[in-house]
């Protein structure tokens, strides 16, 4: 590779770095998620993280997030949302549900469901409940 | 209506109030947006608002949000994202782009484009730039 080629290569790499560091495609991000119930941080916006996750089954335990809301946005499939004191809600693509701070809740799905989660950066995805699916925020950043 | 009917009616209304107060469908929310460049708040999650908007044309002025990130998520159509110092990025459905705090930017679209915006509650959508499309946060809550 001569200097001219190297210059062009660096220019192209810089271009993609600049542009791609801010652009995330949800399908691409989800294709990198191999496990169910394992949120992956794809972006940060001020004090919240934007995460994607795949849900299949009923392994999410009932839990709360004290003082912190949590938003669920269904991209594909159906998500059963259960909140203490409410009848279950079956969410479909394009549906958004905010679980208000402190409410006991859990989600499940009979078939694979893809979602976006929006939570404060410090929110634990299963609250203070430790279960087989619990991942630390650090794990979710990898 | 007798007491039994009234009881049933109240029960049904309470049920819908409880459930529907947390569930938002994006298509329904967008169908209530009549103007371009006029974000509408559909949810709040901790310190951020979730908004939907329709974009058509080039009326968004170049602007910044000092100290505040802003996230764009394209639901349908194509959005041209321009950020100072970067080549323009053409975003499509499922693409997410976070404009980091302080960066000069603007968005436009040649055909109607539907987006989700995530911003701090106090963020002005055209920053400190007043233009013909500028809406106050209070207007966006209506």
Number of helices of chain A: 3
User: How helix-rich are the residues of chain A, as a percent range?
Assistant: 10-25%
The CATH topology of chain A, please?
Jelly Rolls
Order of helices and strands of chain A: HEHEEEEEEEH
Task: Name the features.
20% helix; seven-stranded antiparallel beta sheet; alpha+beta; 142 residues; globular; homodimer; Jelly Rolls
How is this structure best described in words?
Two copies of one chain form a homodimer. Chain A has 142 residues and is an alpha+beta fold. Chain A has a single domain (25-140), classed as Jelly Rolls (Sandwich). Helices cover 20% and strands 39% of the residues of chain A. Chain A contains three helices and eight strands, in the order αβαβββββββα. Chain A has helices spanning 3-20, 26-31, 137-140; strands at residues 23-25, 40-45, 48-57, 70-76, 79-83, 89-91, 95-99, 105-120. In chain A, strand 2 (40-45) and strand 3 form a beta hairpin. The first copy, chain A, is globular, with a radius of gyration of 18 Å. Chain A starts with a helix and ends with a helix. Chains A and B meet through helix 1, strand 1, strand 2, strand 7 and strand 8 of A and helix 1, strand 1, strand 2, strand 7 and strand 8 of B.
């Amino acid at each position: 590779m001569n200097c001219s080629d190297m210059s062009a290569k660096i220019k192209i790499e810089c271009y993609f770095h600049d542009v791609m560091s801010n652009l995330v495609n949800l399908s691409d991000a989800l294709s990198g998620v191999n496990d169910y119930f394992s949120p992956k941080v794809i972006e940060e916006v001020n004090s919240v993280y934007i995460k994607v996750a795949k849900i299949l089954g009923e392994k999410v335990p009932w839990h709360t997030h004290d003082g912190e809301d949590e938003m669920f946005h269904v991209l594909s499939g159906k998500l059963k949302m259960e909140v203490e004191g409410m009848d279950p809600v079956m969410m479909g693509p394009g549906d958004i549900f905010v679980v208000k701070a402190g409410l006991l809740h859990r989600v499940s799905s009979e078939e694979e469901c893809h979602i976006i989660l929006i939570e404060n950066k410090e929110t634990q995805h299963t609250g203070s409940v430790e279960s087989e699916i619990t991942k630390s925020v650090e794990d979710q950043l990898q």
